[in-house]
Design goal:
33% of the residues are buried. The protein has 3 domains: 69 residues; 112 residues, no CATH class; 234 residues, Rossmann fold, CATH 3.40.50. It is α/β, with parallel strands linked by helices and 468 residues long. It is elongated. Strands 5-4-3-6-7-8 form a 6-stranded mixed sheet, sandwiched between helices. The two termini are 47 Å apart. Helix 2 packs antiparallel against helix 3. It is 51% helix and 9% strand. InterPro entries: UCP010256, Uncharacterised_CoxE, vWFA_dom_sf. This is VWA domain-containing protein.
């Protein structure tokens, strides 16, 4: 390999690691060996070789593809792409005020007609070529005084592909009844084509920005982290929707791990008769006591969850987890708090839509007095009103960032609750480096209940696996 390809390989592997895709040194060397036996001029062969050696999970593939397109672009700027049948790439003719001239409007209409054809019958290669031409024509916009940059939204606004649906349906369903399976099939095909066009435009915009600003700079912001690396405190609504699929497997694993700990931790009651019979072998001295096997039962769980605004995304995920845990435990009681506490189990009955449950909880639950998080007061009220929820069969799970707005932490109350429970755990969504900064009393609580950093699904999975 030439020196430039080595540099690109090293940079590409480093970018994958920074994006959350685990790549070991050995896997990087495997990729180098694979490059020796393929035609480097075949870009898709190069992509396949890298994917086969570096990508281990399907969730990592989208980020891999984005970074591959940045580090090994299909084209370089300088010779604008010219899709067959589309308008000539170049600047759109506009008046000084920014409105399109008659010539520009005609060229836009031609481009929309070409796009309509691609949405229903174009190949991926044709779509990418057309997208490059449209980015060249419409993508460069003012980004500030004396500054220009490339944007996807200006391309999508100029061509408005979603407005092509009516014309495509009219042409595709000529003489046939509307509203049936045929129309649905055409709609699905067009919507899939629009998504392909959006992705192709976004990829070309990223390529052009990388050429002008540097691939390392755009790579840091171009790739969304894998789902298991999404930070709970920064999760978007879309992220939380995707995370719902992860909840039920985690709930099953958590219940299994806690049950294993109970089986290993309990030997059952002393079996006096068997102990006496066994002692006859040692002259009546009971050297080896015998125990009855413990009665099998599903573990019980109490969840105490901070639902304040500062950890709202984390609270949303943990409430989803609590909802799923109801199917795995014999008894689950959930409590939410901000500066006072209320039981929220009633909102998460089986068969209830989880979104509706959270809406009702926000409107009806009594968890707020003054609106500022107060762990100490919430713990005291929990012990006073619901202390009987925690007993020798209970696992206590506390979820929150341990930031109490400089109020008394009520450590003795927490110690009493943890002492009554079978076991207790605390999951903190903040990075460990931020513990004990500002109003955080993380170390104080961690001295009473083992506290684990839990910022994403990967860390939550590691916590669950560590319970065995």
């Amino acid at each position: 390999m030439g020196e430039s390809l080595i540099d690109r390989h090293v940079g590409f592997v480093r970018a994958l690691r920074e994006a959350g895709v685990p790549v070991s040194v050995a896997e990087g060397l495997d990729a180098v060996r694979a490059l020796r036996v393929i035609d480097l001029a075949e870009r898709e062969s190069l992509r396949a070789a890298y994917a086969a050696t570096l990508v281990k999970r399907p969730a990592h593939r989208p980020g891999f593809d984005v970074l591959f397109d940045l580090w090994f672009p299909p084209v370089v700027s300088g010779a604008p792409a010219r899709p067959g049948g589309a308008a000539e790439a170049g600047k759109t003719a506009q008046t000084a005020g920014g409105a399109q001239t008659a010539e520009g409007a005609e060229r836009t209409a031609e481009a929309r007609a070409r796009l309509a054809g691609l949405l229903t019958g174009g190949s991926d290669a044709e779509m990418r070529e057309f997208a490059r031409a449209m980015v060249e024509r419409y993508g460069r916009q003012q980004a500030g005084p004396g500054r220009q940059n490339w944007f996807s939204y200006s391309v999508m606004r100029a061509l408005s592909p979603e407005t092509l649906m009516a014309g495509i349906l009219r042409e595709a369903l000529a003489g046939r009844e509307r509203g049936g399976l045929a129309e649905r099939a055409v709609r699905d095909q067009v919507n899939a084509g629009i998504r392909r066009f959006e992705e192709a435009v976004a990829a070309d915009v990223r390529r052009r920005i990388a050429e002008e600003s540097g691939v390392e700079r755009i790579a840091r912001s171009a790739v969304r982290p894998p789902l298991d690396q999404v930070d709970f405190l920064r999760a978007t609504r879309e992220d939380l929707s995707r995370l719902r699929r992860e909840v039920h497997p985690l709930a099953r694993r958590l219940a299994t791990r806690l049950a294993i700990r109970r089986r290993r931790g309990r030997r059952g009651r002393l079996d006096f008769r068997r102990t006496v019979r066994t002692s006859l072998q040692s002259g009546g001295v009971p050297l080896t006591p015998s125990f009855r096997p413990p009665r099998p039962h599903r573990p019980e769980l109490v969840v105490l969850c901070d639902v304040s605004d500062s950890v709202s995304s984390f609270a949303h995920f943990t409430l989803l987890l609590t909802y799923a845990l109801r199917e795995q435990f014999a008894k689950v009681r959930a409590f939410g708090f901000v500066d006072t506490v209320d039981e929220i189990t009633r909102f998460f009955q089986r068969g209830t839509d989880v979104v509706d449950a959270m809406t009702r909880m926000a409107n009806e639950a009594d968890m707020v007095r003054f609106g500022r998080t107060n762990y100490g007061y919430a713990l005291e009220r929990f012990a006073e009103r619901h202390g009987d929820a925690v007993g020798p069969k209970t696992s206590l799970l506390i979820l929150g960032d341990a930031r109490s707005n400089y109020q008394p932490p009520a450590l003795d109350t927490l110690k009493a609750l943890a002492g009554r429970a079978r076991n207790a755990y605390w999951l903190n969504p903040e990075p460990r480096a931020q513990w004990d900064t500002g109003d955080s009393v993380a170390s104080g609580y961690a001295a009473v209940v083992p506290m684990t950093e839990c910022r994403n699904v990967s860390q939550l999975t590691a916590f669950i696996e560590g319970l065995a």
